Amino acid sequence: MQRYLVPPSCFVGDTAVLRGEDAHHIARVMRMVPGDRVEVGDGSGTVWTAVIESVGAGEVHLSLEDSLEEDGEARLELVLLQGLPKHDKMDLIVQKATELGVARVIPVAAARSVVRYQEDQEIRRLQRWRRIAKEAAEQAKRSRIPEIVQPVSAAEAWRWAAQADVALIFDESRRGRPLATALAGHPGVGRIFFAVGPEGGWDPGEVDDATSLGVEPVHLGPRILRTETAGIAAAAAILYHYGEWGR
């Protein structure tokens, strides 16, 4: 059943009204008609089955039925600090991180990040990443849309990470412990931040600054992964370690 995650303002009592791209998708892409059923959620954890009551010009009216017992969210809060990569690699990173269950993606303007956005470009990019996260969350049957925040500096990123139960920075020079060894020392956690550098990795000074605030350097082994691969691999490994695969 097709799932749509929409703002809470779309809900009134036991009804919901979908507009914009969601309404277009129902009417023009899926070609649904009154009587068809969908799943609709508020993006913050609650999802209902719903019956389409009407399909109009730019609006689809739904009647809510039963709320669903959801298990599409990870039991731990996983936050990716991603050094800004070139081109459209961030699109892929946001999409796959969302599918895996990451709760938040924080783009980091690192020393070795080649890309630098002007303010208007940054707004458009952020809107695009949030749209990608929404679509990926719906496809993956998640009940929450990950938060995609505005790009921050490396110094600000480390201050965010210092608030976590576990904070890790992946260092391709293989300083620090293997990921599996580091995680073994934290059998029960609620929030994990993990930082993946851009092309070329983190600058050594950035790693030093992070470790001075309690962020632990780790590595994924002898192979050097591309930035768009490393975050996905790390997220999958962390979720597997804490029992999120097959639970």
TrEMBL record:
It catalyses: uridine(1498) in 16S rRNA + S-adenosyl-L-methionine = N(3)-methyluridine(1498) in 16S rRNA + S-adenosyl-L-homocysteine + H(+). Transmembrane segments: none annotated. GO terms for biological process: rRNA base methylation. One of its GO terms (cellular component) is cytoplasm. Coiled coil: none annotated. Residues 18-64 form the Ribosomal RNA small subunit methyltransferase E PUA-like domain. Its main location: cytoplasm. It is found in: Cytoplasm. The keyword Repeat does not apply. Its EC number is 2.1.1.193. Residues 74-238 form the Ribosomal RNA small subunit methyltransferase E methyltransferase domain. Keywords: Cytoplasm, Methyltransferase, rRNA processing, S-adenosyl-L-methionine, Transferase. It is an enzyme of class 2 (transferase). It comes from the Bacteria. Belongs to the RNA methyltransferase RsmE family. PANTHER family: 16S RRNA (URACIL(1498)-N(3))-METHYLTRANSFERASE, RIBOSOMAL RNA SMALL SUBUNIT METHYLTRANSFERASE E. This is Ribosomal RNA small subunit methyltransferase E. It comes from Kyrpidia tusciae (strain DSM 2912 / NBRC 15312 / T2) (Bacillus tusciae).
